[in-house]
Design a protein that fits this description.
Number of strands: 12
Radius of gyration: 17 Å
Strand content: 35-45%
Number of helices: 1
Shape: globular
Structural class: mainly beta
């Protein structure tokens, strides 16, 4: 169980392009790493500065949680939980095979303004250094040594895809991954 959890943790991605790196994540966190076909699996969407602890509640319009199975992405209905600062929902396991719980904090534009760093939706006088931030995460559920679903590409703008099966990784082992990202362009 721990190695599967560590494998899922390795797949969390946050992206901010261009500009300085910011330590903020949006994490889709399944309630368990294995689930029987047809069973309900609780899922939480966390906005975090500290890994796996939600610290703020993103705007509902900016949050997307779902799952990917059989070549298809499906949204999960989530609702804000003020107590845990997470978006809670659940998914019925599509099978006992590997499937992926997905999360995204949709794109936002931020800039330095005379009042400090702010999210902007239009040009603001005096705003400089605008940049877009998107956040993506995925967690593998039901990963086994015999199932190659761990290597599924789901098509996020920035995505980490395991090459090594996380179910075979032990503490202190190295795990090979591919990082899929668009080619940057220079204006």
């Amino acid at each position: 169980m721990m190695r599967r959890f560590c494998g899922a943790i390795a797949l969390v991605v946050a992206a901010g392009v261009p500009g300085a790196a910011h330590a903020h994540e949006f994490i889709a966190k399944p309630g368990a790493m294995t689930v029987q076909a047809g069973a309900e699996l609780p899922v939480a969407g966390l906005s975090s500065h500290v890994f796996l602890i939600s610290q703020e509640l993103e705007a509902p319009k900016d949050v997307k949680v779902g799952f990917y199975a059989n070549g298809k992405r499906t949204d999960i209905a989530v609702k804000p939980n003020e107590k845990t600062l997470a978006y809670d929902g659940s998914v019925t396991a599509p099978s006992s095979a590997t499937f992926i719980v997905t999360g995204a904090r949709l794109p936002q534009i931020w800039a330095t303004t005379p009042e400090g760093l702010k999210q902007i939706t239009r040009k603001i006088a005096g705003a400089t250094n605008p940049y877009k931030i998107e956040k993506f995460s995925k967690a593998l559920v039901n990963v086994t040594p015999a199932d190659n679903g761990f290597s599924t590409v789901i098509g996020d703008t920035l995505e980490i895809v395991p090459v090594t099966n996380p179910a075979t990784v032990r503490p202190s082992d190295e795990m090979t991954v591919r990082v899929l990202a668009p080619t940057p362009t220079i204006p």
